[in-house]
Amino acid sequence: MKRALVTGGSGAIGSAICRRLAADGMHVFVHANRNLDSAQELCNKIVKEGHSAQAVRFDVTDPAGCESALEALLEEGPIQVLVNNAGLHDDAVFPGMSANQWHSVIDVSLNGFYNVTRPLTMPMIRTRWGRIVNITSIAGITGNRGQTNYAAAKGALHAAGKSLALELASRGITVNSVAPGIIESPMIEKAFDRESISRLVPMKRAGKPEEVAGLVGYLASDLAAYVTGQVISINGGMI
After folding, report:
1. Residue 226 a catalytic site member
2. What is the mean pLDDT of residues 171-196?
3. What domains lie within the chain, and their CATH numbers?
4. Rounded CA separation 132/235 (Å)
5. What's the rounded Cα separation, in Å, for the pair 196 and 57?
6. 68: closest CA among 78, 57, 79?
């Protein structure tokens, strides 16, 4: 059984990804930092559905904490599927953006990618099989007002993923980015009404977390062995 780690696994998109990978036969580590109870609740649901999952807790912005937590997981075998889904919004127009807003968003998305991915890379290489999927955002492609920090972090992940894909391609490991547009979640419900979504999205609706999870499931499968270094946006035709 392949083992998968999904950071930020208890949110709307993260939980859908966890359920999809578990349904595909993987043992899924559902990561959380502050919301461990939500991660454990999701694991309980996955197990009740007849699949395998386990909640884990660490701070992706803490290099030493990541190293320690991941070493413990690796004692039982390699993690061959990694979904870097942990992210943070802290929006403000750039002239009014504080240093903390800038650094905190960069720290979770970009430094978190480094802190989690690097310790897992060599164990993947030894198995000659691996899948790394970075969950980014349409903002990392197009930019977005009030999200210079978020767009910078996600755009940097696109570049990092392409570079890492080149390094790992010969080892049977793929690295791709999935850039969602407007996807159903409690946060989106507060930010966009139906009229706004209809105006912005050619398909006239928000995407479903399960639709993002379906794409991640494909990229994590044997069928996607020749897909690497790509940024794939799932956005209902926005771009």
Report:
1. no
2. 89
3. 3-231 (3.40.50.720)
4. 21
5. 36
6. 57
* pLDDT tens digits for range 83-125: 999 999 999 999 999 999 999 999 999 999 999 999 999 999 9
Name the catalytic one among 114, 150, 218, 226: 150
pTM of the model: 0.97
Phi, psi of 53 (to 5 degrees): -155, 155
* Token pair listed for 123: 């164990």
From residue 156, give the alpha-carbon distance in Å to each of 118, 122, 136, 147, 232: 16, 22, 10, 14, 15
For 43-69, give the DSSP string.
HHHHHHTT-EEEEEE--TT-HHHHHHH
What CA–CA distances, in Å, run from 228 to 167, 208, 223? Answer: 11, 24, 12
In the chain, how many H helices and how many E strands? 10, 7
**Per the structure block, which two tokens stand in for 67?**
């190293």
Gap between the Cα atoms of 149 and 157, Å rounded: 13
d(CA 150, CA 207): 20
